[in-house]
Amino acid sequence: MYAVIKHGGKQYKVSVGDVLELDRIEGAEPKSSIELNEVLLVKGDDTKIGAPTVEGAKVVAEVINNARGKKVIIFKKRRRKDSRKKRGFRRDFTRVVIKEIVA
């Protein structure tokens, strides 16, 4: 059984036991449980497709930790103009493990 969920403007295909890195969820403590209610599709014995979401479906996940991703360097240069910009970016994310899919 798997489900397609929407979180943070992205879609994820998840099954029970999958580990995901979602955009930072404020107030999510490690070992706490969260519910993801924007379920777009559930596939098991039968398929349920939402319009836009499946009514009554949810995905239960357990928070593993909150962390920051690797640094990404953004470097812009205009040739012959002595113009340079260097910026760094680190993504904040919440790592979760999928515990249950309720259809």
Proportion of helical residues: under 10%
Rg of Cα set: 18 Å
Number of E strands: 10
Q: In total, how many domains does the architecture comprise? A: 1
Determine the number of helices (DSSP H or I, runs of at least 4 residues): 0
- What strand line-up does the widest sheet have? 2-1-5-6
Mean pLDDT: 96
Largest sheet: 4 strands, antiparallel
Secondary-structure element order, as H and E? Answer: EEEEEEEEEE
In terms of per-residue confidence, which ranges show pLDDT below 50 for 5 or more consecutive residues? Answer: none
Distance between the termini: 10 Å
Tell me, what's the shape? Answer: elongated
Structural class: mainly beta
Beta-strand percentage? Answer: over 45%
Keywords: Ribonucleoprotein, Ribosomal protein, RNA-binding, rRNA-binding
Protein name: Large ribosomal subunit protein bL21
Organism: Nautilia profundicola (strain ATCC BAA-1463 / DSM 18972 / AmH)
Family: Belongs to the bacterial ribosomal protein bL21 family.
Question: How is this structure best described in words?
Answer:
This is Large ribosomal subunit protein bL21. Keywords: Ribonucleoprotein, Ribosomal protein, RNA-binding, rRNA-binding. The chain is an all-beta fold and 103 residues long. It has one domain (2-102). It contains no helices and ten strands. A hairpin with a 2-residue loop joins β1 (2-7) and β2. The N and C termini lie close together (10 Å). The model has no long low-confidence stretch (mean pLDDT 96).
